[in-house]
Each structure stands twice: as C-alpha cells, then as structure tokens.
Here is the input.
Amino acid sequence: MTPNIPGRLEKLRGKLAETELDGIIISQPENRYYLSNFLGTAGYLLITRSEAVLATDFRYTEQANEQATAYRVVQIVGSAFDWFLQLIGELRINRLGFEAGHVTFSFHRRLSEAVSIAQSPLQLLPTDGLVESIRAVKEPEEIELIAKAAQIADSAMDYVRGIIRAGMTEKGVAWAIEKFMREQGSQSLPFEAIVASGPNAALPHHRPTERSFGQGEPVVIDIGAKVGGYCSDLTRTLRVGAPVHGDDLFNRVYDTVIRAQQAAAGMIFEGMSGGEADGLARRVIDDAGYSHAFGHSLGHGVGLAEHEQPRLGPNSSDALVSNMVFTVEPGIYLPGWGGVRIEDLVVMENGRVRTLSKTEK
Ligand code: ZN
Ligand code: ZN
Here is the structure.
C-alpha cells in the first residue's frame, strides 16, 4: 500500500493554519513515516504551508528519495544543524512548531542555536499531538492492515487455547505465541506478549516469568501483531484446565468483566467522549462491587503505534469519531488471587463500533 501522502499533508496544513503556524518540524518516528512514507529510522521533516523537506544522513538519502516522493531530500552532514540553518533562511518562516512531547532537550537546544546563529526572527513554538490527532482517524487501507494484524492475533489466541495446560510456563507460552505470529506473517511484535498466570494476573503489565501454571488458574494473555507497520492488540483470560472445586470467584469476576466489555462495545456511539465510553464499563464493574479493582483506562487508539489517540479513560475529552480504531479492555485485578482482562479491537463505523477481534470470549 502506498499511503496518500498529499492528502495527509493537506490535513496537516489545515491544522497549521488553525494553530497559526507557518510550519512544523517533525521528529517523532511514526509521525515521520505517516507524513512521508519514508521508512528510514533517522531524519526530520520540515513542512511549511507550501514546502515539504526531509533531512536525513547519507545512510538514508537514496531510500528517502525513493520512498518520500512528495519531499525534497536534503542531506545532514555530521552532527551539525547546518541543514536547518540553511532552510531557515530559504523558507522565510516565522512561526515554526516542534513536537513538544517528543523532542529532547538537546534537539531543542540545537534548533535554538541555529536560529540565533542565523539571527532569524523565527520563533520555535511547542505543539502537542497535532499529527497524532490526524493519525487517530484511519483511512480505509489503514483499517484493512489493522484488521489483518487483528486476525493474526486471533489465530494465535485460538492456538494457545488449544495447547494451554497446567505445568506450562509463562515464558514458554509467550515464546510459542511470538513464534506462531511471526510464522503467520506478523512483523516484529509491537510489544512483548503478556502472559500472566495465577497471582501474576493481578498485575496488568506483568512480564512473562518461569512460573508454571497451576490447575484452574486464570491466565491473562495480551498480545499484538503487526502488518504493514500497523499494530493489533488483543487480550483474553483463559482458565487452565477444569475449575478447582468450589472456586466460583473466577466465574463471578469473568462474568462481570464480560458484561462491562459488552456494555461498552454495545453502547459507545459516535461523538461520545473517551470519558463517557469509559464510564459505560466502569459502572458495571462498580455495581458488582469491584470499583477498587479496575485501576486502568478502558482503552486506547491503535495504529502505527500500539498506544495512540484517542484515549478512553475517566477524564478523557477525546471525541470518538468515525474511522477511529481503539481498544475496549476492562479488567478486574485482585491482589494475591489474579485477574481478568478482556480486550477487543474495534472501529467506529456508521455511528457505532464494529469489533475487529473475532476470537471467542
Ligand atoms: Zn493489550
Ligand atoms: Zn491495549
């Protein structure tokens, strides 16, 4: 897929006009790729109302010329910011945005030094989430790639459901998942698989250990695949073998999380805020007496990054609009016992969400 770079640049220029910027310098890796189609891992974009320049070093200039066809490619020599100094004079811009949430102190200092050497009136102005807000609304081709990545995660979950047994270790299962997804066509995984068994399942971001599964224990499995640069994100909580006699806690907790998940997925509508969406699931969990046990947000956007806009959490004012892709992932975590999380990937379409994750719950 060749992305529609002119269309994306046009959207960005609309945002520049709204925020009264003459240009922006892009250094965040996913934003750089999104706006240029350049897959190299080093370089900066300088985009003004009428120009698009990509600065990269000699390792990438040829690749940049091939991939970033909408850009004029300039070569960075050594560690100097001469390229920037030169562009300041040439582009005649006054208000230049930079990505405040991403740039380092040293990068900002080098930009400032170049401005002062050039004795330019240029002002460097912080921006926040400008490109991210454009990325949050997906194009049809992007949704297709995410759906493919979701399908690989689904197959991996089906596979694990078939092999999981008492005595297996968290690390062993995490490796089996990783191998399976790579063989199914996933690029390197967007995040390390979470396999959290027994009491470890009470830790939402547990990293796999040598711990082996006991009979009847919950195992939280949170995995993602990547296709064409786009991620998926999926969680299921499996029980190892038959339930241990007299343990109905698992069923009670599981049933509550399922109801919370279905309430949110069923009732989220277009235009709702991320905070309101979060409330739909949180209410179910609160009513069941587990308000203390759902300590994270309901969900997050997924795309080139595994966590991106929009945010679905108690205080999020992000509006959920058409063609956004995000997760719905309530959980209940009980220290000492374990936890249950169920996460589906959904896309906002025709006013409601469509679930991309297909594996059973
Ligand atoms: Zn996840
Ligand atoms: Zn997630």
